[in-house]
Design a protein that fits this description.
about 220 residues; alpha/beta; 6 strands
Length: about 220
Amino acid sequence: MKQLLAVLLTLAVSACATTEPYDFTAFKDVAPRSILVVPVVNRSLDVDASNYVLSTLSVPLAELGYYVFPVNTVKVVLEQEGLHEPEQIHRMEAPQLAALFGADAVLFVTIKRWDARYTVLSTSVTVEFDYMMASKDGRKIWAAERRQVYTPQRSQSGGLIGDIVTAAMTRAAPNYMPLTRQANRAVFVTGPTHLPPGPYANSGTDTAGVRKLFDILRALPEG
C-alpha cells in the first residue's frame, strides 16, 4: 500500500511540474528591430528543403513586428560576396553578416530532419529544425529546436487496402510545408520560446499587406 501511495505521489508531483520559463534577458538587452535570415543549412537528403524552409521564416517574424530583410535579396547579395553555400555562411561570425545589411540580429536555421518513413500501413512525415539568433555584436540571444510529425489517420471505411494506398500516396508526395509552418509558429509565436512583440507590432502596420509584399518579393527572380 505504501509503495502504491509513493508511486501516486510521484505521478502527482510530475503532473504538477512546470517547464522553466525561457530566459529572454539577452534578447531583451539587445532588443533587435531588424532580423537577417540567412540561407538554411540542410542535413536532409532533399536538396530543395533549404529553399522551402527559407521561404517560410519571414512571415511569422514580420507579423510579430520585426523588420525582416527579404530572403531572396539577402541570398543574391551573399552570392555576390562569394557566399554560395549555407554551411559557409553559418561558419561566418554574426557581426560580419549583420554588417553587410545593417541588421540588429542574424537568424541561423538548420534542418535536422525532413523525411517520410513508410511502414506499409502508414507513413510518418517528420521535420526537425534548430534555430539560433545572434546579435550584431556576436552574442547568442535566442535559440530553439522543434520537431513536427504527421501520420495520416487510419481509414475508418477503406479498410486495409485504403490504409496502404494512403500510406503510399503520403510517401510518394509528402507535404512538408504545413509541418514547417507549424514548427516556425511554435518556436516564434506560441511555444515557451516565443519571441516578444517587435518594435513595429503596434505601429498599425497592415499585416495582410506585409504578407502580400513578402509573397511578391519571394516571386521575384533571383538573378
